[in-house]
Amino acid sequence: MFIIGEKINTVNPRVLRAVEERDAPFISDLAQVQARAGAEIIDVNVGSHPSAEPGNMRWAVERIQEIVDLPLAVDSPNPQAVRAGLEACHNKEQAWANSVTLEKARLEGLLPGVAEYGCTVVGLCMDERGLPPTPAGRLEVAKRLADEVERRRIAPDKLYLDALVEPISVESKAALVSLETLRAIRSALPEIKTVICLSGISFGLPARRLLNRVFLPLLLQAGVDAIFMDPLDRRLMAALRASQALLGHDAHGLKYIAAYRSKQLE
Amino acid sequence: MFIIGEKINTVNPRVLRAVEERDAPFISDLAQVQARAGAEIIDVNVGSHPSAEPGNMRWAVERIQEIVDLPLAVDSPNPQAVRAGLEACHNKEQAWANSVTLEKARLEGLLPGVAEYGCTVVGLCMDERGLPPTPAGRLEVAKRLADEVERRRIAPDKLYLDALVEPISVESKAALVSLETLRAIRSALPEIKTVICLSGISFGLPARRLLNRVFLPLLLQAGVDAIFMDPLDRRLMAALRASQALLGHDAHGLKYIAAYRSKQLE
After folding, report:
1. Of residues B176, B248, B257, nearest to A172 (C-beta)
2. Do the beta carbons of residue A123 and residue A101 sit within 8 Å?
3. Inter-chain residue contact B253 with A176, CB threshold 8 Å
4. Per-residue confidence band for A19, with pLDDT thresholds at 50, 70 and 90
5. Are the CB atoms for A219 and A227 separated by under 8 Å?
6. What is the helix, strand, coil percentage profile of chain B, to 5?
7. Spatial separation of the C-alpha atoms in residues A25 and B118, rounded to whole Å
8. Is A95 within 8 Å of A120 (Cβ atoms)?
9. The complex's ipTM?
10. Which of A170, A175, A251 lies nearest to residue B247, judging by beta carbons?
11. Fewer CB within 10 A of the terminal residue: chain A, N end or C end?
12. pLDDT tens per residue, range A32-59
């Protein structure tokens, strides 16, 4: 399971300011601390004014690469911004294009670049009408996204399908729907990978981090292949170690014991 | 899901001393604090010398009932001690007899009393040879226990089958085996209830409470009907509230918000 560090996101006003002011040390540091904390991919979401986004993305990707040697997930609903970020990536095959949906503009705008660069692409299980409420509806979109990718001769394991989460404050069964969607995709499309954005589940509720870390073992058990999460949340990372020990990914808990000894479980 | 408070257990030297010295306030208080923290059933495990156990059990049940108006789980491998505890219970129909296995002495020693009193009985999924290592093996024992109960005209929903947990420090797949056993029992024996002892999973590892609270949402998702756990572990109880919100048992997270406001999630 890959940890995608989610902290570089202009939804955070401090990050937005750093992007607008071209504060390179701030952005590079935020990449570096995530890498040190265990992130394996760094998400880069630097939207501000739409016209500025391709330039923001190119700038951020260049700055982060000077400091951190990890794959980057170039994250925007705007295909031009994703394309600009991918062009700036040194190692395009390792990069992630985040994201496509079944909307024609996003498919046509992004998949040719994905095919050309051999990068990974995130597909959101939503279409022109939005997010299907049921696992069956999301699986239907997933299959169509898999077809679009196959049609362009992109390898199936380069597609990560985002099962999507709604907040449980809005839809009480939202976690169950996401978990069932993950299982349905794995069963129906075994060559395709899955991804989820953890913290969406807790939006609108207090004590959000508690909900996020309790959702984590359920996602791991459902077999998710990558998670957008906050690697700087120490208790979340401790819950990840515990989940891996419980789910049989850590023989006799030896990694868990090592994490305890290096004070990562406090 | 029922919370069975596990704190009155002579495996804890302080509890053993209180039982041997007939320290009624200590035992009553330990029942009361568990009830206030959310326990719905109080487990009473007061083994010391085998010959003393029936007397210990009678004494403890009498003292606890003077203070706490909750069902008691009379817990001993010794049928005479369980019988002595049941005899002392005011409300025998609400009591739990904990536990039988397929061993003849335990079946014959306990089930006639269970049938007579109409109480609940915990059945451990183990036979004379011990604990089957696979879910299929445990389900086989579960079916035989269900047959034994049915043969004595005990209602099926009075049987709680303990899927049992081994420590992951010993068997890396132990949590997965227990979860799969719970699912197998629910599927094959839908009238029968299930129970688990949470903290067995973490025996032999450091930071045990972290493992216990990460195991909790997995057990709830597997549909377990009752859990032996420590209701005084505030972070475990907070994880329980979060699990219930995530698993659709708490519409719009309203109970979670209430727990947050009453500072139960800290």
Report:
1. B248
2. yes
3. no
4. very high
5. yes
6. 55, 15, 30
7. 71
8. yes
9. 0.95
10. A175
11. C
12. 999 999 999 999 999 989 999 999 999 9
Question: Which amino acid does the sequence have at B113?
Answer: G
> Which residues of chain B, if any, have pLDDT below 50?
none
A263 shares contact with chain B (CB less than 8 Å)? no
DSSP three-state, residue B116: helix
Which of B48, B38, B45 lies closest to B6, judged by CA? B45
Q: Do B172 and A221 touch (CB under 8 A)?
A: no
Between CA B103 and CA B90 the distance in angstroms is 28
* Whole-angstrom distance, CA of residue A257 vs CA of residue A264: 10
| Helix residue ranges, H only, chain A | 13-20, 24-37, 53-65, 79-88, 104-117, 135-151, 174-188, 208-221, 234-246, 254-261
| Cα gap B108→B148, rounded to integer Å | 10
Element spanning B31, H or E: helix B24-37
How far is residue A183's CA from residue A163's CA, in Å, rounded to a whole number?
Answer: 10
Q: If you write DSSP's letter for every residue of B126-165 in order, what string do you get? A: -BTTB--SSHHHHHHHHHHHHHHHHHTT--GGGEEEE---
